[in-house]
Structures are given as structure tokens and as C-alpha cells.
Amino acid sequence: MSRLRKALETGGFPVTSEIGPPKGTRVDHVLEEASKLKDKVAAVNVTDLQSAVMRVGSLVMCIRLKEMGVEPVLQVTCRDRNRISLQSELLSADVMGVENVLCLTGDHIVLGDHQEARPVFDLDSVQLLKAVEILNGGHDLAGHELEGAPNLFAGAVTTPEFEPMDLQLLKMKKKIDAGAKFFQTQAVYDTEKFKAFMDRVSGWNVPVMAGLVLLKSPGMAKFMNKNVAGVFVPDNLIEEIKKTPKADRKKKAAEIAARIIREVRPYCQGIHLMPLEWDEVVPDIIEQAELQ
Length: 292
Prior knowledge:
Elements: H1 3-9, E1 15-19, H2 28-35, E2 43-46, H3 58-67, E3 72-77, H4 83-95, E4 100-104, H5 125-136, E5 153-158, H6 165-178, E6 182-187, H7 191-200, E7 208-213, H8 218-227, H9 235-242, H10 249-264, E8 270-274, H11 282-288
Parallel strand pairs: 1-2, 1-8, 2-3, 3-4, 4-5, 5-6, 6-7, 7-8
């Protein structure tokens, strides 16, 4: 059983982080940063061609993390592969000892660096979760019996600050019915909205890990407000970053993240940190938030 799975199923409060594979074969610097988190987090997500940009694949980076003793979470998106390839990827993950899987629909091609590519979207995230459930049960989506079934721990994403909230709750319920065993949320900054969301899912008995993207600059915060659905950085936080000298912004980002974590901790079952290449700040956040 994976460390993440054990923590979530036994009422622990795990912390996960995230790395993005590079655009090229020089992966050592990314792995070195991830290695610093080995004893700080339960697992490290590996993004799957995030923002529709061509990069090194998620699965191979997950394998490299395992070789280093870092537990990975394989992110799998539906954008680039049909159901045959997606199922093959999931089976391959299990063969290589990668148990944790986060199922995503994926950003559209128009956001990426190969806009002439053709998106697939044969399945969406709900159908992908169902595919994991069926594979774990010993069959493929066509009903054929497998020669050995995987034991994948499937998670999904939800967006607590999305409006209307009822629509997000409906999507979340569909993902639970399809087989989601845990959730990592999109970035949370409005703690009151997060509390209201968690009140609505109380009793659903699926652990929710609150997500946090480190705020690097006022410009980044304003960009997310304008372009990322369901994410809203309050003006007071933007002003707080704006007043901070650039040399001190990593320290400030850690301080803000730790403060939010302390506020949301009573309402969730874990934390997912998205440091956006500021991995060295994660241990400081964990210490300030008193997570260890």
C-alpha cells in the first residue's frame, strides 16, 4: 500500500507536492529538487504535459522518483491519448510499482506550444476514473479479462471556489461514483469559501486535500484571477505580495501558504502544494504550518 493511500485511509493528514517534467532530457535538476522533499511529503505529483506543452512524460519521471525513494503520483490526462493508450499507461504504471494516479481531462491544445496538434479527449476525467475501477477489477473497457489486475489508487481534482458551487459539487459526486478515492483541489485562497464547500461535502467520506499554488508575484496572482477558472486571489494578498521586496518574496510566499494551511486544516484531510519550481520553499511551509 502506498504511503499516501495509507495516510488517507487511516485518518492521517498527508502533504503532497508537485514537479513539472522539463522540456528536454536534462531531468537531473528536477529530480534533485524532488529529492529534497523525500522526508517532508507523503508523495510528489508529476504533471502530465501541463498546459498542453510538450515535455518529458510523467510515467518515466515517476519511475525515476521511485528509484530515489520518493513516492510519486502519476497524473494522467485524456487530451493526448485514446482509451487504448490510456489503459496501457495505467497498466504500465502498476507494473513499474506506481500506485497513485490522478485522473484529469487536461488543458486544451490551444493553451500549449503545438497548436497544430489534434486533441483526442476520447475519455474525460470521470470516464478515466471508471476505467481505473474496471482495470482494478480485472477487465479492460471492452470487457476482456486481464492477465493480472492492477491495484491503482485513483484520485481526482475539484475546484472549491468555482461558481456556481452546485455545478462543481455535481462533478465531484460523479467522480466519486466513478471511483475517485481522494481529491486534490485547485488552488485555495479564500478560506471562507473553502469552508463553505467542505460543509457541503461533509459526509461524503472521500478525503479532500486542499491545494495551494505559491504566490510568486502580484502579476502571477492577477493572471490566475483572469485566466484560471475557479481561482481567486483576494486583493489583500495581492497587495501583501506587492509590498514585499522581490528578494523576500519566497519567504513571503511561504508565510502566506502556511497561514492559509493553518486556516483550512480543520476542514480538510491533507494539503497539496504546487510550488511551481520553488520546491526549496516547501520544507519551510511545512514547518511554519506545523505539519510535522
